[in-house]
Amino acid sequence: MTIPPDQLRLLPPGSYVLIDTRRPSDISYGSIPGAVPVPPEELPERAPSFAGKKLILFCANGSVSAELALSLRAQGHDAASLDGGFHAWLRGEIARQAEEDLSEQVECSLSKRFHKQIWSKFTKALKDYEFISPGDVIGVCVSGGKDSTLLAKLFQMLERFTEVPFEAKYIVMDPGYSPDNRLLIETNARSLGIPVNIFPSDIFENVYHIEKSPCYLCARMRRGHLYAYAKELGCNKIALGHHYDDVIETTLMGMLYGAQIQTMMPKLRSTNFPGMELIRPLYLVREDDIRRWRDYNGLHFLQCACRFTQESLASENEENLSKRLEIKRLIASLKKTNPDVEKHIFSSMENVCLDTVLAYKRRGRTVRFTQWYGKADEDIQDT
After folding, report:
1. Mean pLDDT for the chain?
2. How far apart are CA 19 and CA 27, in angstroms?
3. pTM of this structure
4. Which pLDDT band, with edges at 50, 70 and 90, does 317 fall under?
5. Structural contact between residues 91 and 188, judged by C-beta atoms closer than 8 angstroms
């Protein structure tokens, strides 16, 4: 027995319990309001506590929850599965939101409720790192996730308020999304009033069978395709949605897994596309604030449209989990005893003392402390 997502609104309040059977990592990216998270293995024990109410179970696409509901019915419970699962509900929710003027609501939240946490930090980064110059044509890259979508809305507002003349073009690359994921990205863009330019590529197909570092290869290929398409549109810069937490995680990843001290720079000049530059305007914005902005506005985004990531999560193969997730967990653990640990990691990249490091690299050359130790400043050459 299944229940279409749009019929949930027709059921009497209090007559049913909505049960989310997905993994906690999936639920953290969003769930149906009011749903109770219950892992599949705990259902037999938890089900009696919901006596007298219909149990409506859902998973990602409805297949797992359908089997769980069938098992519960065999045990005498009034159980059903949500047809199409969370993704079907999500599509319906986005379609409903499209009928409302979400764009105005979202921009209002950035101007008022999240002015200090997001808008002010966005404009501070623009000033501190000199991201925009008069006459720039910036390709704002929208992947369909919360970060890049927020970035697009901020640029839309900036175009109206700034005194620096520039033009933004909103770019979506389809590297091989499933039809459902492509539809969600298009629907979100339409609902939020973002005029996206969509172009295709076959990146997912090319990296799908790569066993070693497929995410790294995918990111490199995506970057190249974005540069090329942005240049075709007349852009001289592309803007990506990396935020503050990405910066500190990258810093730690370089130290722990790359044996090097380096960070994610706020802007970079392209070596393969002369005249093009990459900027990261969310550099000072915290991910938790982006999540709060998303939830406050009732917005929904897929966790990841990448085929590799989806299948590794579905198989629960811990070996396939990204190093970035490991770093997130490490930072969360450190934060329990040092609440300022994230700020300290970020600030450390602005407080590097070359007098106290064994060696450093400058323009491709390695300079060791033995080359300057005991010498006068005028005798030291590091360029």
Report:
1. 87
2. 11
3. 0.71
4. very low
5. no
